[in-house]
């Protein structure tokens, strides 16, 4: 590239891509719209047939490879072929990989089209040693993948090679596409193996690595996504970044494909290594600067909350709900803030916007009408056509959103949606030992075509419906779920409920009760039939952070809906994490899979689990969970806290040093660990009376002062923490005599939306043990031998009451925002 050039290509499926160069510089950023972060272009579906070119390429080269001694089985006991572009492996490594493959057992299904006799994988790489489902998806690519660690960088240094770093996750559609098109391609794999050292990272296992190199891609390309592709020096400094790349020139309308790009980069790396290293160092400095620690500011006033709510509300879609144009993501952190603002401001408008949005979401295809739970996001404005993957973190947060909306509005629909979502998680996403699995894929096998099609598992034709439920029930199903002969997605139907059941019953000339009965029967039959279809791939790793969110969901719903089974399920997960994912020194591991806990935990693992433990403590009245929450907060304070500026780092002080040590400050699909930590500290302060917790929360809010002052739309959950900070949180104690029944009083609390409160429900004979952790209980008693409620603010209590009506009035009082 000479002089100043900007190369641009336009394709109907993609945005305009620019490739800029100056002089002989090759600091390049290429990013297609077709990534898992940019869902607007996601509908460009790829079926298995799109890999035919790769299969043909394999057919043309496999005979040559099989005649090459380097590609033959390495001895009688070794079956896997040598990887293309490489000579035979060391015998010890080959034995290790073969044993790891054998240990997978007979049920293990290699994810590759390079098979011997249609069953055994032709290739095995080092990823077979990993537990991440995403890395195991790539364990039989012909690419010589390494997991993240010192070994690949040491090798790159010795051999003077650049490092190709590919980051994704197991349910990422475009990660699968790039795998099939490029990483399964023998020619591309051979070139990578000969000229690069290649590393695969699961972003859900290593969010620290993902965060650092995503910043590089954003700096280079202005946007990012997955799969994320970067090229690094052996010093781990990036000089190239992008997202999805098609395999060859001209594919998908691109001027340059992945093979040409890696060849050009290799040539430049050989010709001008010093120049590339200097550019990489400059980019690394920018990454480090972007993580610079800003000096703390005074905590912003409550006016910041109003400003943020106004800015979020301005984006509201009055026709279909939601706070963006298509694609629409459910963002529960927004719902939580708006409901909190409505409670203290007296404005009904935020509540209406949240309620209308949640109703539209529940009626749409985003909501799995048969199995419960929600898909990742909607590709259209109507919540009709989703991206069909399901994530644990979405569903857990949405349960809490629907439960809070139920408390505020009394609408039973919201409680029902929360219930079916929890039932889905308990039924389909639960490990027998107690943890929750992470996600399911968008794609599933279509038995008719033997292709992987997005959403096939969840969609229906009218003929399929009638074959399962019969003609009479099919009439009811088609009317209620608005199916058509033509379909609304790929000639199939995404079930949705655009009309109220009463209106459908009227059109069908049925009684509403008869309609409900028929739908119940039909749903059971259709769900059972759907369960016989080839299911989407499930990522069965257990993450501490996402399990913390699930614990909160089950505990919150269990308390509000008086469902002891949900509370027990929350406790089972908490027990699992605190036994199977605890480090010897009392900390946490990040992941658990295949019987192994791995990777030191991050800020969000601690913060989300602490929140879950506080929720299950208040739901179960079991002090064990509060003790564990306090212990984990102590670890977080010691190892992650920024003592100089406040707030928490993503990684512990003894973690692997990367190009930058990040301090999270964005509430997106997952809330920021700092936002959750701020709420945890404020709750712990109210529960335990320990002012150190409030002091740390105040310092955290000051450390994030600049982003809060800017309007806070990027940190709505942190704004909820600010709301808690400026409120007069309620300290609610219910004391009942041994053997007594506190339910009449507790039921009032269940039905009240009280986001800024702590709760202890204690039998009088247990006060002595509880008061050690919750000193506010010290002088509380069951008056006249009857359950008694105490409602306090800052340790000053209203008159104790045994009357549920009086308690309801005490709880209804709010502290309004101060006038500007």
Question: Can you list the strand order of the major beta sheet?
Answer: 3-10-9-7-8-6
SS strand fraction:
5-15%
Main sheet characteristics: 6 strands, mixed
Total helix count?
28
The pLDDT mean sits at: 90
Helix content: 40-55%
Q: Tell me, briefly, the overall form.
A: globular
**DSSP strand count:** 24
Gap from first CA to last CA: 58 Å
Please compute the radius of gyration using only Cα atoms: 28 Å
Broad structural category: alpha+beta
Low-confidence stretches: 1-34, 38-78
How are the elements arranged and paired?
Layout: E1 4-11, E2 14-22, E3 28-30, H1 52-67, H2 91-103, E4 115-116, E5 120-121, H3 133-137, E6 145-147, H4 150-159, E7 162-168, H5 173-183, H6 186-195, E8 196-202, H7 207-221, E9 228-232, E10 238-242, H8 258-271, H9 273-290, H10 303-313, H11 332-345, H12 349-363, E11 377-378, E12 386-387, E13 390-391, H13 392-409, H14 412-428, E14 439-440, E15 443-446, E16 451-454, H15 462-480, H16 501-507, H17 512-530, E17 538-539, E18 542-543, H18 544-560, H19 564-580, E19 589-593, E20 596-600, H20 603-620, H21 623-640, H22 673-688, H23 691-703, H24 705-709, H25 716-726, E21 730-736, H26 743-750, E22 757-763, H27 767-770, E23 788-793, E24 796-797, H28 804-812
Parallel strand pairs: 3-10, 6-8, 7-8, 21-22
Antiparallel strand pairs: 1-2, 4-5, 7-9, 9-10, 11-12, 13-14, 14-17, 15-16, 18-19, 19-20, 21-23, 23-24
Helix pairs in contact: 6-8, 7-9, 10-11, 11-12, 11-13, 11-25, 12-13, 13-14, 13-18, 15-17, 16-17, 18-19, 18-20, 19-20, 20-21, 20-22, 22-23, 22-25, 26-28
């Amino acid at each position: 590239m000479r002089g100043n050039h900007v190369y641009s290509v336009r394709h109907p499926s993609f945005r305009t891509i620019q490739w800029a160069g100056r002089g002989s510089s090759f600091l390049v950023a290429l990013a297609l719209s077709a990534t898992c972060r940019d869902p607007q272009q996601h509908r460009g579906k790829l079926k298995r047939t799109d890999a035919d070119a790769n299969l043909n390429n394999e057919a043309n080269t496999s005979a040559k490879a099989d005649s090459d001694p380097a590609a033959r089985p390495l001895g009688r006991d070794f079956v896997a072929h040598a990887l293309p572009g490489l000579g035979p492996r060391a015998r010890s490594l080959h034995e290790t990989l073969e044993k790891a493959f054998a240990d997978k057992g007979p049920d293990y299904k290699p994810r590759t089209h390079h098979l011997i006799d249609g069953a055994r994988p032709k290739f095995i790489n080092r990823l077979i040693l990993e537990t991440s489902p995403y890395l195991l998806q790539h364990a039989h690519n012909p690419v010589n993948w390494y997991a993240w660690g010192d070994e690949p960088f040491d090798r790159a240094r010795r051999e003077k090679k650049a490092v190709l770093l590919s980051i994704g996750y197991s349910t990422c559609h475009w990660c699968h596409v790039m795998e099939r098109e490029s990483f399964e391609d023998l020619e591309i794999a051979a070139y990578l193996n000969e000229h690069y050292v290649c590393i695969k990272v699961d972003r859900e296992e290593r969010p620290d690595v993902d965060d650092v190199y995503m910043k590089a891609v954003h700096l280079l390309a202005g946007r990012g996504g997955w799969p994320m592709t970067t090229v690094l020096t052996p010093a781990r400094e990036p000089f190239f970044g992008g997202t999805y790349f098609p395999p060859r020139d001209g594919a998908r309308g691109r001027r340059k494909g992945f093979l040409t790009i890696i060849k050009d980069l290799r040539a430049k790396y050989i010709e001008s290594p010093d120049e590339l290293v200097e550019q990489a160092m400059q980019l690394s400095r920018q990454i480090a600067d972007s993580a610079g620690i800003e000096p703390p500011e005074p905590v912003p006033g409550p006016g910041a909350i109003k400003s943020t709510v106004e800015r979020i509300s301005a984006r509201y879609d009055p026709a279909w709900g939601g706070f963006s144009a298509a694609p629409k993501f459910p963002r529960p952190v927004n719902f939580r803030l708006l409901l909190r603002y409505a409670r203290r401001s007296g404005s009904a408008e935020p509540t209406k916007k949240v309620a209308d949005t949640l109703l539209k979401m529940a009626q749409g295809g985003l909501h799995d009408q048969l199995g419960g739970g929600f898909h990742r996001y909607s590709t259209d404005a109507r919540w009709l056509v989703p991206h069909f993957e399901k994530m644990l973190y979405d569903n857990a947060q949405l349960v809490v959103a629907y439960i809070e909306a139920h408390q505020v509005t009394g609408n039973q629909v919201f409680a029902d949606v929360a219930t079916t979502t929890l039932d889905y998680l308990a039924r389909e996403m639960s490990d027998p030992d107690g943890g929750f699995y992470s996600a399911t894929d968008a794609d599933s096998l279509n038995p008719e075509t033997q292709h992987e099609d997005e959403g096939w598992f969840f969609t229906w034709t009218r003929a399929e419906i009638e074959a399962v439920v019969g003609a009479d029930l099919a009439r009811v199903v088609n009317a209620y779920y608005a199916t058509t002969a033509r379909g609304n997605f790929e000639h199939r139907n995404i079930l949705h409920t655009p009309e109220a059941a009463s209106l459908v019953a009227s059109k069908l000339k049925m009684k509403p009760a008869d309609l409900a009965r028929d739908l119940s029967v039909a749903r059971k039959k259709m769900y059972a039939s759907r369960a016989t279809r080839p299911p989407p791939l499930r990522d069965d790793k257990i993450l501490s952070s996402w399990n913390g969110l699930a614990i909160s969901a089950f505990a919150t719903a269990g308390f509000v809906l008086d469902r002891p089974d949900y509370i027990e399920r929350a406790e089972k997960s908490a027990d699992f994490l605190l036994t199977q994912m605890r480090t010897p020194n009392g900390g946490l591991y990040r992941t658990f899979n295949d019987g192994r806990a791995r990777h030191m935990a991050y800020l969000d693992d601690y913060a989300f689990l602490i929140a879950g433990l506080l929720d299950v403590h208040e739901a179960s009245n079991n002090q064990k969970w509060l003790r564990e929450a306090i212990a984990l907060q102590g670890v977080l304070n010691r190892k992650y806290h920024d003592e100089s500026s406040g707030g928490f780092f993503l990684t512990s002080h003894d973690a692997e040093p990367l190009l930058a040590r990040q301090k999270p400050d964005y509430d997106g699909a997952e809330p920021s660990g700092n936002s959750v930590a701020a709420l945890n500290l404020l709750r712990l302060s109210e529960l335990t009376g320990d002012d150190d917790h409030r002091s740390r929360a105040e310092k955290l809010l000051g450390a994030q002062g600049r982003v809060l002052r800017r309007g806070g739309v990027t940190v709505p959950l942190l704004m909820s923490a600010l709301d808690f900070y400026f409120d007069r949180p309620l300290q609610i104690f219910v004391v009942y005599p041994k053997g007594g029944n506190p339910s009449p009083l507790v039921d009032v609390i269940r039905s009240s939306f009280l986001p800024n409160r702590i709760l202890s429900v204690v039998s009088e004979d247990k006060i002595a043990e509880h008061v050690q952790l919750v000193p506010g209980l010290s002088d509380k008693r069951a008056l006249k031998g009857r359950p008694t409620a105490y409602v306090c603010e800052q340790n000053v209590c209203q008159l104790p009451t045994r009357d549920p009506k009086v308690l309801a009035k005490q709880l209804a009082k709010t502290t309004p925002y101060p006038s500007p």
